[in-house]
Design goal:
This protein has about 110 residues and is mostly helical. It has six helices and no strands. It is globular, with a radius of gyration of 13 Å.
Length: about 110
């Protein structure tokens, strides 16, 4: 019997957590940040809903996103969640970009409960 999904996700986040913040280099350009925001609402939104209120995947409210460390959330974005439809974006995003998305989800997320 598998442990509950929340426990598995938390363990995955902790296992994948890397010192990503230490690897951040130059700040992202405003243009790249705009591209990432579009990616978040369109590509991530294809499963999580265009307003992040859920769809095939769960909703992504700020309170849920803040249950993870920023590094752990970035690791989830990069590596996906095994056993779910959540893909890893490692081939398309850098660690710095994943950290930007994690920060956006935790601090600038318009979906508040």
């Amino acid at each position: 019997m598998l442990p509950p999904l929340n426990l598995r996700l938390s363990l995955l986040a902790m296992a994948c957590a890397l010192p990503l913040a230490a690897q951040a280099e130059t700040p992202l350009s405003a243009e790249r940040e705009a591209e990432l925001e579009t990616l978040l609402y369109q590509d991530c939104g294809s499963c999580h809903g265009m307003t992040l209120r859920g769809g095939l995947g769960p909703e992504l409210p700020r309170s849920r996103m803040n249950a993870y460390s920023q590094d752990g959330l970035a690791a989830l974005i990069l590596h996906g969640v095994e056993g779910t439809a959540m893909p890893g974006w490692e081939g398309l995003l850098t660690e710095q970009e994943a950290l930007w998305l994690a920060d956006h989800l935790q601090n600038d997320n318009p979906l508040d409960e």
